Amino acid sequence: MDFFQINADATLFVSSDIDDWHGIENRRITVIVDMDGLIDNVPTKPDHFLYVYYPIYDEQLPDLDKLHAISHMVANLSRSETVLVHCQMGFNRSCLVMGVALTYLGMSGREAIDHLRSIRPGALFNENFAAYLETLPAASLALT
Question: Which helix (H) or strand (E) holds 116?
Fold first, then answer.
């Protein structure tokens, strides 16, 4: 499993399926958004992880209200927690959520696409996801 650091503060990561909980611990990741179809074998230590299960298809856009709610949460939590968004391969679904989160952190959708592709070569090859991100302005909603 490869971790791709999204921001300079090392509070945002994307990856493929989780198969290395030591890597999660070493990066001090405390929030995991699982976009894959299978629930991870998450450690059950109380108040250790916030685990959000949000599987979507790697096809058409998901429900936009849910997408933006999850992405807003990711952006907001990255101010105090370390967040990992992962899907099976770490290219499309996780990068869609991360791209929307980056717009809440001040990037335009186009900037988010370029940034994610520079860090994760091959990211957002799903044309539907990339086209949607392209339409988003920077800081489309204020963080609360």
Answer: helix 109-119
pLDDT tens digits for range 98-118: 999 999 999 999 999 999 999
Which range marks the domain in which residue 55 is found?
Answer: 3-134
- Phi then psi for residue 114, to 5 deg, are -60, -40
Neighbours of 51 (CB within 10 A): 15
pLDDT in tens, 132-141: 999 999 985 5
Q: What is the CATH number of the domain that holds 52?
A: 3.90.190.10
Identify the bridge partners of residue 50 per DSSP, sorted by sequence position.
Answer: 31
Which of 14, 19, 33 shows the shortest CA–CA distance to 117?
14
